């Protein structure tokens, strides 16, 4: 460390272990107490005051205004999240400011939560518990007051086979599911072949009665065939392969009437008005959502309509919120650890100061000149 402390402003707490680690290393760390996001004007003021690094998260809009305020002083923006659609990548590139994120450490936590949401909506965990709590549990009956849909042995469409999509497929493997994969950009045929081998072995060993299968198909085919559709794509608003409103009236209508839609990716991947209509008019059986176009979910969102509450599960952008996943200061385990490691790599000139070699810098194209449309999550 130099004698003058490196200054970092964080728009939120990232947990004491990681914060202490930075301070023990001599960083001058200022943290917005939150929990709500600071005004953008405050972030700009801090950046203009000459901070070297900025720790931000998905509710903080970071664009040219922020980079302009930090011209000559701001050296890194470290996002504590894997998705970084709140940061204008093109602006970061123009100002040559590295963005870092926290991939991989949240794959399993996010995938398992998506899986649990799928179970919650299909097996009706919410309304069945509500029935007990409200004293409305009558006698045991084969099918009254309702039944749910099984997951075991069913077919899931995993839309987006980046890191989290692949983690989801691994969870589904244990539930004897068949897997339809769709991804226009990040196809991993080797992974699919490996999963097929495990499926075949499980069948050969007599662990499953029917052999399972996995295959890449088109989006329309995946939507039309699946019992469950789980979204794992990054939000890409423009470019060759946008994912904005990937699920809209047309694509929701392709889904089966008895199918469920799961979203632990980003809210704007779904046209929420179309989804509310699809649920109300029963084009599909249900949905479980962790992310929304506007967060927190507005009071007047059509997704809150009591008419669909039995088939629409709503969670508070919570999928990666496992204790270790969120808070471990170990960069191999926690988002907090990976966030500060990305920050320190840049500020301490690790990897010989070569941003293209730093594992958590996402906008490497700013230094090697190649464009990128989006990142697998
Ligand atoms: C959470 O949504 C993340 O992108 O890490």
Element layout with pairings:
Blueprint: E1 7-10, H1 16-24, E2 28-31, H2 40-48, E3 53-56, H3 64-69, E4 76-79, H4 89-94, E5 99-100, H5 107-122, H6 125-133, E6 155-159, H7 163-173, E7 178-182, H8 189-204, E8 214-216, H9 219-225, E9 228-231, H10 249-254, E10 260-263, H11 272-280, E11 286-289, E12 312-314, H12 323-327, H13 335-347, H14 365-368
Parallel strand pairs: 1-2, 1-3, 3-4, 4-5, 6-7, 6-9, 7-8, 9-10, 10-11, 11-12
Helix pairs in contact: 5-7, 7-8
Bound molecules: glyoxylic acid.
Structure report:
By secondary structure, the protein is of the alpha/beta class. It has two domains: about 5-105 and about 325-365, Rossmann fold, CATH 3.40.50; about 105-315, Rossmann fold (3-Layer(aba) Sandwich). The chain has 14 helices and twelve strands. The strands form two sheets. Strands 8-7-6-9-10-11-12 form a seven-stranded parallel sheet, sandwiched between helices. Strands 2-1-3-4-5 form a five-stranded parallel sheet, sandwiched between helices. Helix 1 links the parallel strand 1 (about 5-10) and strand 2. Helix 5 crosses helix 7. The radius of gyration is 22 Å and the shape is globular.
Give a brief rundown of this model.
By secondary structure, the protein is an alpha/beta fold. The protein has helices at residues 16-24, 40-48, 64-69, 89-94, 107-122, 125-133, 163-173, 189-204, 219-225, 249-254, 272-280, 323-327, 335-347, 365-368; strands at 7-10, 28-31, 53-56, 76-79, 99-100, 155-159, 178-182, 214-216, 228-231, 260-263, 286-289, 312-314.
């Amino acid at each position: 460390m130099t004698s003058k402390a490196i200054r970092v402003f964080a728009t939120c707490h990232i947990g004491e272990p990681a914060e202490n680690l930075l301070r023990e290393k001599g960083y001058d760390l200022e943290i917005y107490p939150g929990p709500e996001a600071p005004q953008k004007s405050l972030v700009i003021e801090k950046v203009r005051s000459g901070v070297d690094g900025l720790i931000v998260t998905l509710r903080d809009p970071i664009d040219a205004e922020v980079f302009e305020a930090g011209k000559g002083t701001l050296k890194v923006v470290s996002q504590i999240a894997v998705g970084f659609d709140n940061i204008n990548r093109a602006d970061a590139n123009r100002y040559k400011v590295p963005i870092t994120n926290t991939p991989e450490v949240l794959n399993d936590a996010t995938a398992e939560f998506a899986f649990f949401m799928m179970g919650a909506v299909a097996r009706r965990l919410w309304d069945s518990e509500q029935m007990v709590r409200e004293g409305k549990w009558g006698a045991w009956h084969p099918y009254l007051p309702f039944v749910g849909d099984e997951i075991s042995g069913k077919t899931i469409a995993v839309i987006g086979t980046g890191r989290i999509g692949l983690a989801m497929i691994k969870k589904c493997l244990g539930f004897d599911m068949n897997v339809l994969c769709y991804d226009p950009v990040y196809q991993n045929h080797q992974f699919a072949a490996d999963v097929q081998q495990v499926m075949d072995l499980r069948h050969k060993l007599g662990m499953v009665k029917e052999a399972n299968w996995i295959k890449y198909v088109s989006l329309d085919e995946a939507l039309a065939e699946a019992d469950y559709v789980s979204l794992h794509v990054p939000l890409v608003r423009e470019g060759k392969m946008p994912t904005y409103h990937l699920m809209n009236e047309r694509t929701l209508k392709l889904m089966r009437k008895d199918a469920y839609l799961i979203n632990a990716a980003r809210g704007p991947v779904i046209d929420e008005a179309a989804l509310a209509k699809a649920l109300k008019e029963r084009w599909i059986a249900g949905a479980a959502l962790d992310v929304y176009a506007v967060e927190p979910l507005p009071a007047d969102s059509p997704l809150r309509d009591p008419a669909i509450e039995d088939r629409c599960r709503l969670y508070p952008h919570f999928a990666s919120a496992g204790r270790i996943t969120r808070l471990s200061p170990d960069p191999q385990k926690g988002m907090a650890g990976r966030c500060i490691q990305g920050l320190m790599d840049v500020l301490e000139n690790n990897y010989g100061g070569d941003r293209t070699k730093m594992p958590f810098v996402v906008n490497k194209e700013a230094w090697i000149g190649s464009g990128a449309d989006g990142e697998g999550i």
